[in-house]
Each structure stands twice: as structure tokens, then as C-alpha cells.
Amino acid sequence: MTMELRDLAMQVARIAQDAGKHALSNQVTPRSLTEVSAAARDYSRGLELDGRLSQFIYNRLTYVDPFNGRWDERSDEWHAGDRYWCIGGIDGVINYTRNMAEWSVTVSLFEFNEFGSAQPILGVVHAPALQLTYIAARRSGAIRMRATPLGEKREKIMPSTTSSLDGSVIGFGMSFKSDEARHALKVVADIAGRPADMKRVGPSSLDLCKVADGTYDAYFEPHLHKWDVPALSAGAVVLWEAQGQLSNWRGDLIHWRSENNLVATNGLILDDLKPYLVESWDNAQPSDNAQ
């Protein structure tokens, strides 16, 4: 009999936590800052660890259930019910390299339906330095596990009930590329003064989970790429199962094989936020009359 997704998610969480211990130990190891070339955007120390972490996680997952393999190694052929592990290394590699606590290890599980559409059905986001783990599986809800002086605490999570930008707390993300970052900053400038606060911490997986547990009322980010899929898919399942909403800036579904302009909300604040996103994106597109 196939293992229940909820039980599978708990096993995946333990694997992610074990991987996180290795990554955290590596992060706190003293090193020379000359290893990192910020000007060249070369955060290779974190990226090298990505590969080792990803392989460690996948090796452990194969003992639980290998399914049809890894998402990034799937073929063009598919069958309804095929499942693939989507494994991230470190989401928030810049934070990791600079010894910040806001980074995570992520795992999701994609499943193909009869129409050939693959969607994530299980997600784990583990933040070792914060001692937080978010776990979700299809139709099983979402929980947050956190370390306390009295031991591990498990809590069911849900989004906030804020229905207006006024007095809200909004998270946003942006690329280091100036043309991509400009779209996010345009929205920030336009809505400044309405939210009580705007947060730019990252990474995207944790930003999604912060909407899921009510820390943020919404989070948006343009130009999320193919390499962001492991983080986004894991965080998406947490958000969905907590009863939050996820879409692109126009309100359409997320595409897991292309770039996305993503917005996550508690389901109540989107109508107030969406016009700012659409206007910013429309203004960023080249005119049909441009030569």
C-alpha cells in the first residue's frame, strides 16, 4: 500500500532536518570572506554545498520511496500518477554565505495528473538556524514545528485575516539584476504609506511560509526563475494547505516550467494589492508601437 502523504511528509521533514544540521555546521565554520566575490555575484561556497545537500537528501529519499526519480532529471514521457522528487539545496544562499539565519532546505514532491499537468503535492521547508520546519501534504493541512525550551512544538498554521493594505505587513523579494529588481521596487514605492511595514528578508520559500502562518499578510516577487522551482514548490504546498492563495501578478496559475511573477496572500488582501502589481508590470512591458 502506498504510504499516506502525511506520514511521508514527516519522514521527508526528518531527512531535511538532518541535511540542515550539516549545512548549519558548515555555515558557522570560520572562514575568510575572500572566498566570496560579491562584485562577481559568486556565492560559490553555498552553491557547492547545494549539490552535496541535494544528493544527500535524494539518497535518503530513495530508501523511503524513489518514485519516478528527480524532477530535474525527468523525461518528456509521463503517465498519470508519476511522481518526482524536487530537491533544493540552500534557498537563500546569499543569506547563508553572509551568516544570516534566514535560509532554508526544501523538498517537494510533484505528481502528474491525467492531463499531463504536474503539481506539487507535498512540501517541506526547513530553516535550521531558525529551528523551524514547515510541513504540508495534499488535503492534510500544514503544520509548523519549532524548537522550544520544553522540546519540539507542533502547530497547525493558517494565514492572517487582514483584508486591506492599510496597516498590513507585506513581504517582497527581488533579483540582484537591476532591470528585474526595478519591478518590485516600483510596487514598493507605489504602496508605501499603506502597509504598516514592508519586509525584504527572504528567501522565497520562507516568505511563502510566513504568509501561510500569518506573519505576513502577503508576499510578492517578480522574475522567479527555473532554479527557484524547488523553493517555490515546497513553500506553495505549505501555503495552499494553510488555505492561503498563490498566483501570478494577474491572478493566473503558477507555471512550474517558466518564469513567474508571484504573489502569495491570505486570500483576503489580493484585491487591494493586485492593481499595484498589474500596473507595475504593464508599465514595464515594451509598447506595441516601440521600434
UniProtKB/TrEMBL annotation:
Signal peptide: none annotated. Mg(2+) 1 binds at D91, D228. SUPFAM superfamilies: Carbohydrate phosphatase. It comes from the Bacteria. The keyword Transmembrane does not apply. Mg(2+) 2 binds at I90. Its cofactor is Mg(2+). Keywords: Magnesium, Metal-binding. InterPro entries: Inositol_monophosphatase-like. GO terms for molecular function: inositol monophosphate 1-phosphatase activity; metal ion binding. Pfam families: Inositol_P (PF00459). This is Inositol monophosphatase. It comes from Bifidobacterium anseris.
